[in-house]
Backbone:
């Protein structure tokens, strides 16, 4: 296992994403959250009230802890969004 | 979208086992049906699998019940049903009207003759100090990551909470080459053994229960019972987890605290029905700890208190795939009968049989959910500085103070503290807050009541609102 992807899953098409200006690899059919976790991202934002770091909790669209700007649209849940070639992802500051 | 109709004979919310079963039976008749689900993939919680787009087929053949489910999915895809993924029900209004948002790009309204809520359940949480640190996940997220996307949250981790899903998640993690540092189960060992046979029967994931447990035990992973997570620690991300032993009442035994060094923790405390949409539609709800908390009240034909609105699956009581499947079928038979269609699939004798089966499932539901009963001590011992509402960062101290000032119901508490007002709109904290209020105010769940819901009940995107079509 090179990253956190399970080896026995034989992936098909590689895509590139830009995360806060940095390029990462992902695979078509993954969610943005899965690609981020696989690439080692845990902290996804600061809570606007406490300013503490936060990361994904539920992975299935309930907690809204994974919202970020995806291709310029703010407040999108990373766990409910499929990756696309050239996608631009920016975490909320 | 141009190919959608403005009016549907049947509108089904949720594509899990229950919604899918209902849709696949109704699809044989000349009815206009719309099935929608918020998820990228249809199939709900149980029928998650690595998407075709992502990777080649899994070498593991699915269990029997999953095969039934996948067959439903295929059938529904083939039929004339309008199927919308990435589509969220946002509001239910008078005159049989609903508002939906698709893919954060567009919003639509539809009208219906029959509405079926098959909205399922979500995970229940028990807050502990530091549970907001990145690196603390739900066991559901652990499962979704592995089963839908083929990713591990970490190479090494700890699993904690209560109930058998911990063991299913643990098994999957080990199978995929993860290193499990331990399973910390809150309830005593005896509890589990008592219910095992029935759980294995109802939850297909556990049909190989023996194999699961033996894999876990033979891997040498420490499995500890009567353990509660006391604190997650770390500078910016999870670094340590403190676990303590609890007595029979669920109270921490001082001096038993043990610290584990870990970068990932998955926690799970059972499930709560997703009742918000039916609540908004005015469906009568009923509280039953034995059904998983607040549920939609239905009769034995799956009809709610509102004319022509039905509910099926986990939303009427958390109880596994067989129950959801069976209730989906009953709902379909009721709709056909009310529509005046002669149904070959559901002669009266068959419906009776399904209803009898349902009684059986409900008795299982009662013992299953008693596994997740929240002990007052586990609420009373939550330290003041523990965050309860994550979105608004409201801690236990603020809640206690508001209760002390007389806020004895969720809506008063909301106004006073802003809890449940954040982005998730209380999806995560509401069930916890109901438990906290019950215990602090010494009142029944009925006396405490529920947060009121208003449309849109998930944040709607401005962009989607601009692209509104009637
Ligand atoms: C996190 C989790 C993990 C589970 N894992 C297992 C397991 O491993 N093995 C097992 O046997 N059982 C598992 N279960 C239980 C399993 O869900 C049930 O046994 C059964 O399959 C549920 O079917 P259902 O149709 O009632 O609901 P679900 O399968 O939960 O389907 C409900 C669907 O409704 C959709 N929905 C809800 N609200 C809206 C809305 N407003 N707009 C649009 N769509 C909406 C959801 O996206 C979801 O897809 C799990 C449950 C949960 C919550
Ligand atoms: S991780 Fe909870 S909504 Fe995305």
Residues:
């Amino acid at each position: 296992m090179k990253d956190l992807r399970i080896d026995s899953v034989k992936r098909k098409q590689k895509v590139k994403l830009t995360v806060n200006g940095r390029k990462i690899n992902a695979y078509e059919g993954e969610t943005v959250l899965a690609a981020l976790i696989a690439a080692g991202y845990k902290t996804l934002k600061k809570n606007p009230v406490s300013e503490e770091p936060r990361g994904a909790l539920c992975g299935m669209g309930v907690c809204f802890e994974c919202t970020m700007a995806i291709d310029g649209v703010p407040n999108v849940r990373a766990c409910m969004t499929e990756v696309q070639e050239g996608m631009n992802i920016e975490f909320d500051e | 979208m141009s190919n959608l109709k403005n009016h549907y004979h049947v509108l089904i919310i949720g594509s899990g086992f229950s919604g899918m079963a209902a849709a696949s039976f109704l699809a044989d008749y000349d009815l206009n049906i719309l099935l929608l689900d918020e998820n990228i993939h249809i199939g709900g919680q149980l029928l998650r699998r690595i998407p075709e787009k992502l990777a080649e087929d899994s070498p593991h053949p699915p269990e029997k019940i999953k095969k039934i489910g996948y067959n439903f999915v295929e059938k529904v895809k083939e039929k004339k049903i309008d199927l919308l993924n990435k589509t969220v029900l946002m509001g239910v209004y008078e005159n049989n009207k609903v508002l939906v948002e698709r893919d954060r790009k567009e919003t639509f309204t539809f009208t219906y003759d029959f509405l079926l809520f098959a909205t399922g359940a979500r995970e229940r949480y028990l807050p502990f100090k530091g549970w907001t640190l990145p690196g603390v996940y739900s066991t559901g997220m652990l499962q979704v990551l592995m089963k839908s996307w083929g990713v591990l949250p970490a190479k090494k981790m700890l699993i904690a909470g209560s109930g058998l899903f911990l063991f299913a998640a643990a098994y999957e993690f080990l199978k995929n080459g993860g290193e499990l540092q331990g399973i910390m189960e809150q309830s005593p060992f005896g509890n589990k053994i008592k219910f095992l046979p029935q759980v294995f029967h109802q939850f297909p994931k556990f049909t190989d229960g023996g194999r699961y447990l033996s894999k876990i035990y033979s891997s040498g992973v420490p499995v500890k019972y009567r353990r509660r997570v006391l604190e997650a620690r770390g500078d910016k991300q999870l670094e340590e987890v403190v676990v303590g032993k609890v007595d029979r009442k669920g109270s921490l035994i001082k001096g038993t605290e043990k610290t584990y060094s870990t970068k990932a923790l998955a926690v799970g405390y059972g499930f709560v029905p997703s009742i918000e949409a039916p609540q908004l539609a005015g469906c009568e709800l009923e509280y039953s700890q034995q059904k998983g908390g607040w549920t939609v009240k239905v009769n034995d034909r799956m009809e709610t208190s509102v004319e022509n609105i039905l509910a099926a699956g986990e939303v009427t009581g958390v109880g596994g795939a067989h129950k959801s499947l069976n209730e989906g079928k009953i709902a379909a038979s009721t709709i056909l009968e009310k529509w005046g269609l002669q149904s070959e699939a559901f002669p009266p004798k068959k419906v009776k049989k399904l209803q009898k089966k349902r009684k059986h499932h409900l008795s299982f539901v009662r013992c299953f959910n008693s596994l997740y009963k929240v002990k007052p001590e586990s609420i009373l011992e939550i330290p003041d500085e523990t965050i309860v509402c994550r979105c608004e960062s409201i801690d236990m101290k603020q809640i206690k103070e508001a209760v002390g000032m007389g806020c004895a119901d969720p809506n008063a508490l909301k106004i006073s503290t802003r809890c449940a007002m954040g982005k998730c709109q209380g999806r995560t904290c509401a069930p916890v807050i109901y438990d906290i209020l019950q215990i602090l105010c010494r009142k029944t769940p009925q006396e405490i009541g529920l947060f009121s819901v208003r449309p849109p009940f998930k944040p709607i995107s401005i962009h989607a609102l601009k692209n509104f079509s009637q």
Q: What stands out?
A: The beta strands of chain A are 14-19, 22-27, 45-46, 53-54, 67-70, 73-77, 88-90.
